[in-house]
Amino acid sequence: VPDNPTPTEKSPAMDSFLKNVLGIDRHAALESGVCSHCNGKVDPDSLSELDLREYRISGWCPTCSTKLFGG
């Protein structure tokens, strides 16, 4: 079983803000292998380098990231 990605470092205030906005803790989402926005399953091994980087930053899957940022 592969290790789940490590979340990027953020200040406690930012992590708290994201949890309040998204309704799920970004760290818990990555540990569980789910998207912190849609709660869909995320397979880190199937992500591109860019998608994996974004997943570590926001906890969002590629579909949710694309909806937000375009692409």
Topology at a glance:
Layout: H1 12-22, H2 26-32, H3 49-58, H4 62-69
Low-confidence stretches: none
Give the N-to-C terminal Cα separation: 31 Å
Q: Which strand-content bin applies to the residues?
A: under 5%
Biggest sheet features: none
> Radius of gyration over alpha carbons?
11 Å
Structural class: mainly alpha
Judging from the principal axes of the Cα atoms, what is the shape? globular
Order of helices and strands: HHHH
Share of residues in helices: 40-55%
How many beta strands in the DSSP annotation? 0
Throw out a few tags for this protein.
single chain; 71 residues; mainly alpha
Protein model, in words:
The protein has 71 residues and is mostly helical. It has four helices and no strands. The longest helix has 11 residues. The model has no long low-confidence stretch (mean pLDDT 87).
Question: What's the quick description here?
Answer:
The protein is an all-alpha fold. It is built from 4 helices and no strands.
